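Need a sequence for this fold. Nothing fancy.
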């Protein structure tokens, strides 16, 4: 019976080491939020500050899209794929319209050149 008590003691010790020591190690190793930024060279700091607004805007768009997608009964990834297909189709339609407009302008220019000669 004595060996079982020693085994349970070891198991409790390993459990405490993993449950307390793991998070304590992560807390000790993880740098503070501003500490990493201070280690950047000045050029990277400047660029990071310049692009901050763009990153915040992109994040806000992403969150708003996720909120919109989550209102559906379907899974988010399916709704996102459908939205991506719609956007792709819209871009293709816009590109086709622009191509048609360019072609009509070219045709008008050709007619104007032919009439001018």
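Here you go.
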């Amino acid at each position: 019976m004595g060996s079982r008590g020693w085994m349970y003691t070891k198991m409790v010790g390993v459990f405490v080491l993993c449950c307390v020591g793991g998070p304590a190690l992560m807390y000790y190793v993880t740098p503070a939020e501003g500490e990493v930024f201070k280690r950047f060279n000045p050029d990277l700091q400047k660029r990071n500050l310049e692009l901050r607004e763009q990153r915040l805007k992109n994040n806000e768009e992403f969150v708003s899209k996720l909120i919109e997608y989550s209102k559906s009964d379907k899974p988010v990834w399916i709704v996102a794929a459908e939205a991506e297909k719609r956007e792709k189709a819209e871009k293709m339609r816009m590109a086709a319209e622009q191509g048609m407009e360019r072609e009509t302008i070219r045709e008008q220019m050709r007619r104007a050149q032919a009439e001018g000669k």
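For context: The radius of gyration is 31 Å.
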